[in-house]
Design goal:
The chain has helices spanning 2-22, 31-42, 48-59, 64-85, 102-105, 108-127, 135-149, 154-163, 171-196, 201-228, 231-234, 240-243, 249-253, 255-271, 281-292; strands spanning 95-96, 99-100. It is an all-alpha fold. The protein has one domain: Farnesyl Diphosphate Synthase. It has a two-stranded antiparallel ribbon. Strand 1 and strand 2 form a beta hairpin. It is globular. It binds geranylgeranyl diphosphate. Residues 45-46, 48, 81-82, 84-85, 90, 97, 154-155, 158, 181-182, 222 line the site of geranylgeranyl diphosphate.
């Protein structure tokens, strides 16, 4: 996995430089908002979604600076979701990525606005001709990201997650919830490279299938970490789901079967990449990393 660790670290640095450029701190009366946006997006994280964008883009020889802008935009949406998820009205968390959450560092109102502004900035970035010269490509990116982030995707999944505190869910229902809450953003991250590279449908389909299995494997790994990981390793409070009545894959399947299922999904995800031959190797390695990670 050393190659993958190096590639993850190198891509994370490049995406952080891009985020830093896209979110400049200027002297103005509303500078506190920019500070909160930068605090929430520049403070660590594994940068898995940007890695997916950059790796899928490299399958189609997309210009690196365009891919980095799209990768930064997807990460902004992810960071916004974490800021809002941590708010007292949602998960009420004090710790994220090993640091105080945005509303603890600043205040609740600033955290809400920083999340809103990160989400909006993401669309500004992908709608900008600097991301792609072809307006059809840009509109495809906007459509894909909006679907993945909105009521049919991440926000809808979050609604189901809140409702799940009071309802017992079965495996198909949890699968749908997780597919919407985390899978759809992972899906558009994988497909973004294909959109930027104007890839044909077979490639887009393969990446969607890969993302589908990867997203679920990622979520099961997250559930396992909640049970088995420590706060120091994970950088956020653990044992939250296990302490609450919330249904998770681990609760319904048990630790052993959940682990096996995650491996099965990761293997399936890798198989979908066969059409890319050795160019698909970084994405294959990521599927294994996602289920073995300790953070
Ligand atoms: C509030 C609109 C809104 C949505 C929230 C994604 C989400 C929906 C909430 C995040 C809460 C959570 C712990 C979800 C489980 C999976 C997940 C997205 C974990 C965090 O992603 P990582 O592990 O985090 O990629 P880093 O910090 O590495 O970027």
């Amino acid at each position: 996995m050393t190659n993958l660790q190096d590639a993850l670290a190198q891509n994370a640095r490049a995406v952080e430089e891009t985020l830093d450029r896209l979110l400049p701190l200027e002297e103005c009366p509303e500078a506190r908002l920019m500070e909160a946006m930068r605090y929430s997006s520049l403070g660590g994280g594994k940068r898995i979604r940007p890695f997916l964008v950059l790796s899928s883009a490299s399958l189609f020889n997309v210009d690196r600076s365009c891919a980095l802008r799209a990768a930064a935009a997807v990460e902004m949406v992810h960071c916004y979701s974490l800021v809002h998820d941590d708010l007292p009205a949602m998960d009420d968390d004090d710790l994220r990525r090993g640091r105080p959450t945005c509303h603890i560092k600043f205040d609740e109102a600033t955290a809400i606005l920083a999340g809103d502004a990160l989400l909006t900035k993401a669309f500004e970035v992908i709608a900008d001709p600097k991301t792609h010269s072809d307006p059809h490509v840009r509109s495809d990116l906007v459509l894909g990201l909006a679907r993945a982030a909105g009521n049919e995707g991440m926000v809808g999944g979050q609604m189901l997650d809140l409702l799940a505190e009071k309802t017992a869910l079965n495996i198909p229902e949890i699968t749908r919830l997780q597919r919407m809450k985390t899978g759809m953003l992972i899906g558009i991250a994988c497909e973004t490279g294909a959109i930027l590279g104007r890839a044909h449908e077979a490639s887009r389909h393969a990446l969607r299938a890969y993302a589908h299995d990867l997203g679920l494997a990622f979520q099961i790994a997250d559930d396992l970490l909640d049970v088995e990981g420590t706060e120091v390793e994970v950088g956020k409070k653990t044992k939250k789901d296990s302490a609450s009545g919330k249904a998770t894959f681990v609760k319904l399947l048990g630790l052993e079967r959940a682990r096996e299922h995650a491996q099965l999904l990761a293997d399936q995800a890798m198989q979908h990449l066969e059409i890319f031959e050795e160019k698909g190797e970084p994405l294959k390695q990521l599927a294994q990393f996602v289920i073995e990670r300790r953070a």
